[in-house]
Amino acid sequence: MRIVLVNANTTEAVTEAIRQQAAAVAGPGTEILAVTPSFGAESVESNFENHLAAVAIMDRVAAIRDPFDAVVLAGFGEHGKEGLAELLDVPVVDATEAAAHVACLLGRRYAVVTSLRRTLGRIRDRLALAGLAGNCVSVRATGLPVLQLEADPERAAQRLAEEAVLAVDEDGADVICLGCAGMAELASRVEAATSVPVVDGVTAAVGLAETLVRLYLQPSKAAYPAPRPKAITGWPLPSVPGS
Amino acid sequence: MRIVLVNANTTEAVTEAIRQQAAAVAGPGTEILAVTPSFGAESVESNFENHLAAVAIMDRVAAIRDPFDAVVLAGFGEHGKEGLAELLDVPVVDATEAAAHVACLLGRRYAVVTSLRRTLGRIRDRLALAGLAGNCVSVRATGLPVLQLEADPERAAQRLAEEAVLAVDEDGADVICLGCAGMAELASRVEAATSVPVVDGVTAAVGLAETLVRLYLQPSKAAYPAPRPKAITGWPLPSVPGS
Amino acid sequence: MRIVLVNANTTEAVTEAIRQQAAAVAGPGTEILAVTPSFGAESVESNFENHLAAVAIMDRVAAIRDPFDAVVLAGFGEHGKEGLAELLDVPVVDATEAAAHVACLLGRRYAVVTSLRRTLGRIRDRLALAGLAGNCVSVRATGLPVLQLEADPERAAQRLAEEAVLAVDEDGADVICLGCAGMAELASRVEAATSVPVVDGVTAAVGLAETLVRLYLQPSKAAYPAPRPKAITGWPLPSVPGS
Amino acid sequence: MRIVLVNANTTEAVTEAIRQQAAAVAGPGTEILAVTPSFGAESVESNFENHLAAVAIMDRVAAIRDPFDAVVLAGFGEHGKEGLAELLDVPVVDATEAAAHVACLLGRRYAVVTSLRRTLGRIRDRLALAGLAGNCVSVRATGLPVLQLEADPERAAQRLAEEAVLAVDEDGADVICLGCAGMAELASRVEAATSVPVVDGVTAAVGLAETLVRLYLQPSKAAYPAPRPKAITGWPLPSVPGS
Amino acid sequence: MRIVLVNANTTEAVTEAIRQQAAAVAGPGTEILAVTPSFGAESVESNFENHLAAVAIMDRVAAIRDPFDAVVLAGFGEHGKEGLAELLDVPVVDATEAAAHVACLLGRRYAVVTSLRRTLGRIRDRLALAGLAGNCVSVRATGLPVLQLEADPERAAQRLAEEAVLAVDEDGADVICLGCAGMAELASRVEAATSVPVVDGVTAAVGLAETLVRLYLQPSKAAYPAPRPKAITGWPLPSVPGS
Amino acid sequence: MRIVLVNANTTEAVTEAIRQQAAAVAGPGTEILAVTPSFGAESVESNFENHLAAVAIMDRVAAIRDPFDAVVLAGFGEHGKEGLAELLDVPVVDATEAAAHVACLLGRRYAVVTSLRRTLGRIRDRLALAGLAGNCVSVRATGLPVLQLEADPERAAQRLAEEAVLAVDEDGADVICLGCAGMAELASRVEAATSVPVVDGVTAAVGLAETLVRLYLQPSKAAYPAPRPKAITGWPLPSVPGS
């Protein structure tokens, strides 16, 4: 099967990092097609950037000509899954939700550790709407921007581990979710510091997407019906720089 | 004061209709500046169209050169408020939330009556995230598309009234919110049918925006901090048709 | 329009203070008629005093001969709105609810800072019943009695600011509600200390009441039907001292 | 032990009815002292009447000179427990809460069947604040006023049974609470119609009050501290007719 | 009446301790029949041990030949009530639920203080399923195993009091539940340290069971219907050591 | 990898049916080891039978000598996962939770359709404790016992489809979970009737178990720590018939 893995930001290095992480866990017959939006922000931290990304992701996926069996959205706490699900007939798995689903399978109460404080509300929102907030005891920020997490993995691992330890000791978490794309490499560091399982959203989403495909399950069109035909101006976005 | 009233779809007739409705309730010193996005769908019903609208609304508001004191988002159940709030230093009032806030001030349990069934989930999501789902007993669809509500007010009033009566009798609602921009004209018809107060989102949002301005209250930058400076490709969207 | 502003305690100085604060934010055509109950406690902090106030407020409002367009209940965390709403055909806006509604319009998560610890449960109750508890992260007490807040504004401002800072830093609030009548003057002090918007209940309630009146919205009689005619002994309370 | 049983309305016949019902279930050493408020409404159905009753009940209990070990509030869905609890050092058991507690001990999901639709919101409020709403599947009204329930027990039993059957069949209730004082006599009729246990609030409250007394448990003064000494005008209410 | 009091573990000394505590609060006509399961663990702390206990308790109660009026399950946070309730026609009162019900009658917000951290999740689960989690502010562990609580009451009282004080001061509890069988003796020590009421589950359950019996209330067979006749292998467990 | 698939009842035909269904969806390298408890009921419908099954399942899995990588519990709405998770160091995936997790990935709101009404409460309990109740709109019973579902697949498919259609049309479900082991064969029938995705718990659980194994994720020992060493009488159960 072929899984499209969509980075939410425009930084190719992140796309390549998550492609490798996804490929490392994918089953033998699974091809990972990692793509980068042709417009948007180099890292997605604000809602402003996130709304842009929602459109850019739809734009990018709509441009794929080869068939595929599922889509994985690699961003964390992102808007946009519902819109993409309306456009496609294959499962769309969001990394935020995937991490939380897998965390619930492993323990009783999970926490999320992420980049900047400004993303906390958005992550809580996504978990709440996905019906997954019940077992979430906290969402904590390291204070490190997304690209710094990528650029300085040593510092990233240290800060993630520190917050994860607090999530376990003070908030009562027994599973930790890493709340940012491209952090799969750091999971073992956080696991060593906390002695609890650590879930990376992108790899979790790839695993769940494979499961859905293997079970021949499609997204519900009662939940995500295709858009009705109507006059739309300015879509697709033909002339954005870089497209 | 000047309030920017943003239509979510690209149909100018809707913009004009809500402009008139807003002007009818605005206080003496309030100017309503109604604007239409320069790209997007003629009516916003799907999540796909709604993600487009979120960007198109940010795009359109960012292009306003004159100062303004508040923004009212006229769509119902729309994504996008958080992003716009990050870009601005003035209150951004969403019509969905405004209708529900006002409904809570008038009764114990409110219901929303809206256009198509496909919008129900999105509306419930917005109410839940705004912390307003507790007193909402139901969200009901008339089955009429947005533009048909505009085009055939007689039929619209009838179907809205029918569903509103069911919301009162079967769901226990004691206030009704009209869940679609441009329906203010129909409120009295629904009120006559149900004998409960009927709230229109756009006019409610204009009233709340005026209140916030008069109280000198700004949106919380702890909740909606300005985006950090970073490389963004393809924004603003310079060459979309119609911009 | 004329708005009746009802103090919950019998201290005339508080009535005068809130009258001035309300008048300062009211629109040009709005007259504030501030009234003091003719019996009850000099400050309302216990449930015992609050039940007395609920009756005293109904008693006092029922004695008003001039027409009015809305009532604002200035107490915070008070019982009694439902009863008064049954007796009247105009909007009754409670300051507790008003503060929370406005807070939700400004940010994601609000906190309330109030007088004594003993009032916390009652305030949480009111917010829960109004459907507004979802976004409330904490209700904190300064430990200062109501009249001391009035008498020593300097100390009041300091303690309110201290608790508000804790609400922001430890509880994650991004908006603060001042949980006591007559504290509007202190809002700017708390705002300076926290850098988040600070909402005063009385002024918020006046603004919302004006909005409801301007939108021609009445309270739902399905929610608050007039009492049925029946034998009532000892009402109105004719001979209470001071009446 | 002596238990004070307080009727919420001023109808002596109701006081006598509940006294008999309470006495029938009380243990051998338990004396029931049933009292009627000296002012208020002949039946309590509105919030207005209920706020009056809250004060009248405090007034009446404060006038009792003999020692007592617990108080049972016989009204259903009433305001006022918190205030009375502040004034006393003995358990105050509300019939609404008592019925729901006992129902939770007998099954998984309970429903309440009561008098008029106008009381539904108040009953739901009380259950929610008591932390007992989770297992409540519905609150249903017979449409019969309180005094008619008393006056025409045959019709009352029939309507209660009809609604109780709906609560079981449509709402999934497996226990029924009778939501009005003085209905204990009708429990067996409703039980015969539904084949599920039927709980009367007054008798349940008497049983729970006895348990608390026998366990030497006092109400929490951290939850219900005595009012602080302060100037109170018009309390006690010396000259209300009938006092 | 005769109440069967079932210890969840196989330690006879615990059975004797709870028997004495139950007898001390039981009414004059109440006989306490305390029984010990014939298989299982010497103390029940894990879910593994608890699942064993659920069966062992059903096995032990099924072996009782004399008639009885109610059953009290003395374990705290235990699985198994539902199964036993299906087998019997008399009330089955679980000590966990009983403690929480009584706590809700005494204050606004209760906390549970128990033995090991590993039991916290199970206790929270029981409270949630019983519909009693709403007013529970925390469940805290002393870190002392069950048998150590029995063996060293001095140390037990000290650690319970320490955690109870934290529950009051930091979590806002105004009632404390002792979350382990056999701790009734320690209640006064914890009460002295916290100045709030302290509820022991076993004695609370005995009191509630007596109330249900005196009110002639049976468990709902709609909630807990008798098992259907069917082929069961290995039940009753004829040859387990000790049976 | 090797996955142990545990039937909850003692009917070998059911074990064989679910083994085939599991094998049909398992990946190429996955071996399914299906086992039947050596004691317990021929079908598990009551809580009584379910408590027996919890122990019988632990007993049966503990007897497996070969290594395995994960366990799938095939029962629906069963007690017992927590205990087994304490005894093992590999993932334990419950079919109830698996179905709900997968349903959440496919739509917004799911319903469960199951065998007898008596199992509804138990299923709701499991979903609530797993943090998955938020998006569950209903749990519906066909009224058919478990073994009849197996014996008469035609009738089973018809009744399942009827209830599923009601779940979609009346409750608003957009995904259906089949709430009983061995119903995978019937999914396509229900899907044809409803036009929404239909999830079978056993096959979903096998897929999720494979994902967890491939991601090298272990259950949290902070959530499910191994039992402490202690005296246990009558375990393992050496002489139960058939063991």
From TrEMBL, chains A, B, C, D, E, F:
<dbReference type="Pfam" id="PF01177">
    <property type="entry name" value="Asp_Glu_race"/>
</dbReference>
<dbReference type="InterPro" id="IPR053714">
    <property type="entry name" value="Iso_Racemase_Enz_sf"/>
</dbReference>
<dbReference type="InterPro" id="IPR052186">
    <property type="entry name" value="Hydantoin_racemase-like"/>
</dbReference>
<dbReference type="InterPro" id="IPR015942">
    <property type="entry name" value="Asp/Glu/hydantoin_racemase"/>
</dbReference>
<protein>
    <submittedName>
        <fullName>Aspartate/glutamate racemase family protein</fullName>
    </submittedName>
</protein>
<comment type="similarity">
    <text>Belongs to the HyuE racemase family.</text>
</comment>
